Amino acid sequence: MTPPVEADNPAAPGHGYRNEGIRTLLAMFEHGDPDEHLTLGQILKGLEQSAFGVFLFIAILPSFIPIPGIGGAVSGPLVFLIGVQLLCGMTRPWLPGFIARRGPKRSTMHKFLGKISRPLQRLDRMLKPRLPALIDPLPARMLTGLLLLMVAVLLSLPIPFTNYLFGFQLLLFSLALIERDGALMLFNWIAAIAAGLFFGVGSGQLISESIAMFERMTG
């Protein structure tokens, strides 16, 4: 992963990639009151290229809670919202007020990061900004959004023992968006399509649940 940006040398706007890599962003969770609620509006404020990735990173937290139904009920609609916005070509996430005012406790982020620290350390040596054609252009963002919609619906379906599977898949999507790593994004596209074919198409529930989720969000 890319090293943190020094506070006294920020990347100037309009000069390509602004370093908002995972280690830089997660530094905001390291110090402070463990019981403090970090609102999504506060966390995403000021972020540029990585805002969708950070939003997705936080949205998937409930999918790693070992309680049936929690991941789909909470993470699914948030991931669906992110997917819709990417599919519509948006470059920054829009948050309804009731979502912007919510967010995880700092202690929750610490626990989650503790669980995934080993995989992150391994990915640390591999992730970097590359293949921007798979991250930045509108067709790439739209394809990412479409696949996030599909995985969000799969997460919401009552498929046993898949919360961690889809949660980890979404984690890789978030890391690709945060680190602007097109190679990882290509892997995510292939894996998401495979998951959709294996879990979704055969069950016949993917389309019906997609329509139902969209109606719940817009109703």
Main β-sheet: number of strands, strand sense, barrel status? none
Instruction: Name the beta content range.
Output: under 5%
* Subunit arrangement of the protein: single chain
Tell how many strands the DSSP assignment holds: 0
Gyration radius, in Å: 17 Å
Order of helices and strands: HHHHHHHHHHH
Report the span from N to C terminus: 41 Å
Unreliable stretches (pLDDT < 50, length at least 5) are 1-18
Helix content class: 55-70%
Question: Describe it for me?
Answer:
The protein has 219 residues and is mainly alpha-helical. The chain has 11 helices and no strands. Helix 8 (138-156) runs antiparallel to helix 9 and helix 9 runs antiparallel to helix 10 (182-201). 34% of the residues are buried.
Write the layout of secondary structure elements.
Elements: H1 22-26, H2 40-44, H3 51-59, H4 70-87, H5 97-100, H6 106-115, H7 117-124, H8 138-156, H9 163-179, H10 182-201, H11 206-218
Helix pairs in contact: 3-4, 3-9, 4-8, 8-9, 8-10, 8-11, 9-10
What are the salient characteristics of this protein?
single chain, 219 residues, mainly alpha, 11 helices, disordered N terminus
Quick structural overview:
Helix content is 58%, strand content 0%.
